[in-house]
Structures are given as structure tokens and as C-alpha cells.
Fold this protein.
Amino acid sequence: MTDKDTLAFIALFKDAYQKCFGHALEDPMSETESKLLCNQVLELTGLSIGWKSVKNYSFFVTGRSSAKEENPSAATLDTLARYVLGAPHTTELKRKAEESHYPWWFMYRDKFMRSTPARDRSWQRTTIVSSIILIAIAVAGTYLYRITAKPPAEFSDDFNQVSDKALHAHGWLVNDKDENWWNKKGEVPGELTLYTLKGDNWPDTANKQGIKNLLTRKIPYDCFTAELHLRNFIPRQEWQQAGLILLEDTSLTGKSVRLSIAFNDYFAGAHLPREIYIQAITSQGNGFSKPEEIAHKPILYPDSVHSNSIQLKMLQNSALRIEKHGDRFRFLYSDGLTGNTAFREVVSQDIDIRPKYIGIFAIRGFKDSTAAIPVHFT
């Protein structure tokens, strides 16, 4: 690559990162970030790039002294350019047949060159004193950056400690606290225990919206993967459910997306077997009367458990996952006798929401007759 090509590649990589994560690239990317970017590139362009290469590129682009000079292929450059410029979806075979000259990369490079004014070469005569000053500023800036708060690229919590102090230190906030039930959160050592309390995140004709003991945390990025593990959660009565919720605001008045394990025995008069199912549901917030169920996937019929007890055992270790890449959301579910069973996609859909918070919840809707049961998060 020429020097100009290298500058264009650096700008292209930064633009791709900005588009995926919603903020500028400042540090080398983690494995998780690299995979998220590659997944979104594949989703939007139909073309793939290796996450390990992306991670290496990030070291080079951010100017880490240990990073070797990178020389990405024209195909990789074209793939990134297609992602940044919003090119039509394609395949490797189709690109090879119709666009083997990699026009999107050259389009991006030419645009970059035109937007970069000719530089005054007097910079080559910069004095040593000026260089030392610039180095000092860079060092000071790096130091200040590292000591200021910056959202981590990865976050996990195994809930070994669930005191208010420990949860707050991990960035969690509890909303609409019910002290009597909240005080039971540590009743099983090494787990977070919530109860399916009366409430919901949208109102009905007789009740205001509200989720008691809703545990929330800010989402620092536009692209992310959120995963939640539950131990032996088996809802048994109508509307008992627990899971993940994405929110525009913690007042529950904005848009939301919810993924949960739930119980259902209401079929509008139809005679169908009771079910435990995975539900994905969206709400447009106040001003819209009803939410929209975008997925309803039965995973267990309680009435048939006596003839197939293995089904019940599969719920000993269940997990939910939400992946967000731009406007595209994937909802996945896993269960099994062990905790490492593969995730399976429930639904994938474009949703117009920019969530600012993620929450862990346990509810039973507004049913007074439905019991509060424990939900153990690990």
C-alpha cells in the first residue's frame, strides 16, 4: 500500500468502527468488539472479514507501538468500504463476477483524497522542541484518558456479591424498590434472586406501568451482545416470567424491547395445552395502546412432562441473549442439562429503538391471583 492508501485505510477503519459502535475508536478492539463488527459487516454486506484481522488492524490504526504495519487485501478494503458507504447486499461469488475491480474501495479512497487538502510540507522542518512538546501533550492526554471513566468494552457479573454496595459498584441501579422482596435478593449464596412481582412495563386499563425491583444498567455502545443466565426457572402460572429488557429510559415511558421465559395458559377460548415459552415483545412507549409480540416459541408443555421428564431437566440451565447490530436485533435462547449448550435463534428483526439501558426483571403482570416465585440469576 502507498502512504495515501494507508491513510485512506485508517480513515475507513475508523469510519467502520464509528458506524458500528456509535463513538470514535480510541483503544485497540477487544475480541468481543471485533466479532461484533464482523457480524454486522456480514449482516449488512453479505461479505465476511476475519475478526482476528480486525483486532490486529485496530492496534495498527490506533498507533500502538507494538503493532506491525498492516496491509489488508483489496477485498477486505472493499468489504469495509461497502459497509461504510451502504452498498447493496451481495455475495463473494457475485462480487467476483460483477465487481472484481473492487469499486467501493476506490470510491471511498477517491472521496477521502478529495476531502484531504494538500498539506504544507513545512511540518518536516518542525523543531525538536516542538516534537518534545507534542510528545508531552500526547503522554499527558493518554494519562488523563486512562484515569477518566470510560465504559468497558466487555462487562460481566456472576452475582457472587449482591449487596447494594456491590451491585452499585458494578453499575447496577434498582428501580421501584420493594424492600421486603428486595431484601431476599441474596437468599441463595452466589446468585441474584428476584421474585415475579405484580407489574408490567406497559399499563392496562386499571394499572399503571411499573416493574418492581427492576435492575438496570446503562448501555455504553450502539452495537452490543447481552446475555443472561437463569438456574432452574420454571414458571407455573399465567404471566409469570423473567428475562432481559432494553429501555430508552428507566421511567418505562419510552420504547422498549423485552425477551423472557414465560408461562401461558390463555388461548382466547381455544383448547390448547399450557406452555412455557420464549417471548420477544416490543412497545412503542406512551401514546401507543398495545405492544407487539414478535416471537412466541413454546419450549415446554407442562402437561406432558410426566411422559418426558428430560424436558423439565433441560430448564435447569437456561439463558437468553440479545444481539444488536445497528437496527438489527437477534433474539436467542439456550437450555440444557449443562451450562454450555449452544444458543438457538428465536427471531431476528429490524427494530426502531435506541436503547440506553438494559434491565433484568421478574414479573407476573397485573394478576393478583398469580403467585410470586423466585428467579435465580447466575
Observations:
- The chain has ten helices and 13 strands.
- The longest strand covers residues 256-264.
- The CA atoms of residues 289 and 371 lie 27 Å apart.
- The mean pLDDT is 86.
